[in-house]
Design brief:
Elements: H1 2-28, H2 35-49, E1 54-58, H3 64-92, H4 99-113, E2 118-122
Antiparallel strand pairs: 1-2
Length: 135
């Protein structure tokens, strides 16, 4: 079922949302100081391209730099990416088939606003904790 939802997602909004993240990542990689934002944007682009079967978990190693980076991200890129998720999610919820896609869009809003300090993990693992992936 995940593959079917991911293919429908890709066709009806996932591709253009992922392209928005890629564009944000390219813009962020222009300056050396904003490369971490670009890397986070590319990571979220892959998540926005194929979201079903994956989730986000907090990274226990993230600290104050992630918090400060998230504030900068919200001001320069996060708000318009979140707006894209809101508009796409509302449009997808207008149909019965699109409701799961709209809900997935709404679940992507927090990671689009605060990308630093989170990891994207597979939901196949019963305990999707960031410490389990350190081994």
């Amino acid at each position: 079922m995940r593959v079917v939802l991911n293919v429908i997602w890709l066709i009806f909004g996932g591709l253009w949302l992922a392209l928005g993240y890629v564009l944000a990542g390219i813009i962020c990689c222009i300056l050396i100081i904003t490369i971490p934002f670009g890397i986070a944007s590319f990571r979220i682009a892959s998540y926005a391209l194929w979201p079903f079967g994956r989730t986000t978990v907090p990274n226990p190693d993230a600290g104050v730099p992630s918090l400060l980076g998230n504030v900068i991200w919200i001001v320069f890129a996060g708000w318009w990416l979140a707006l894209g998720h809101i508009i796409t999610g509302i449009a997808q919820c207008l149909t019965i088939i699109g409701i799961p896609l709209g809900i997935a869009n709404f679940k992507l809003i927090p990671i689009s606003l605060l990308p630093l300090g989170y990891r994207i993990v597979s939901t196949d693992r019963p305990f999707a904790d960031a410490r389990a992936y350190a081994e």
